[in-house]
Amino acid sequence: MTDPALAELSSRVAADPNDWDARHRLAFAQHQAGDTSSAVELMRAAIRIAPEKALLHNTMGVLHHASGRIGPAVAHYQEAIALDPAFQPPYDNVQRALNRGGTANELFSTYDPRLMDERSTGTKRVMVVSHVPQERIY
């Protein structure tokens, strides 16, 4: 993303500090520009504004995953799935995170029963994910 685009997104955030979408877009742009730490801070703020948005938790998972923090990444993907079971990206992302590696204790210590999903097909989807205390995922 170009500097003018980053500047425009930054001015949107400054104009409306409660605009979670602008924070999300700016965080993603900063990550693409190589500034993942600033992106994480923006996502923390966006999640404080709109904690019910699965998209925000998925993006925070992507940022943690890109930084090699698999546990927090999986925790955010897990939260995104719990918030919106029909939103597909966190399912794909948690699989990538688990395939990336980590210790067995880190990745498979427990599963979240909220991820059991009975859909119209009558099948159940169960994911085994690492448990990261809520206070550590941000």
Compute the number of strand runs: 4
Task: Enumerate the spans where pLDDT stays under 50 for 5 or more consecutive residues.
Answer: 102-138
Strand content: 5-15%
Strand order, sheet with most strands: 1-4
Average pLDDT rating = 78
**How far is the first residue's CA from the last residue's CA?**
25 Å
**Radius of gyration from CA coordinates:** 16 Å
Count of DSSP-assigned helices: 7
SSE order, as H and E?
A: HHHHHHHEEEE
The best one-word shape is globular
Mind summarizing the main beta sheet? 2 strands, antiparallel
The structure class reads mainly alpha
Helix share, percent: 55-70%
Your description of this structure?
It is a single chain. The protein is mostly helical and 138 residues long. The protein is 61% helix and 6% strand. The protein is built from seven helices and four strands; from the N terminus they run H-H-H-H-H-H-H-E-E-E-E. The protein has helices spanning 3-15, 20-32, 36-49, 54-66, 70-83, 89-100, 104-108; strands at residues 110-111, 117-118, 124-125, 128-129. A two-stranded antiparallel ribbon has the order 1-4. Helix 5 (70-83) packs antiparallel against helix 6. The longest helix is centred in the first third of the chain and has 14 residues, at 36-49. The two termini are 25 Å apart. 37% of the residues are buried.
Précis, in short:
This protein has 138 residues and is mostly helical.
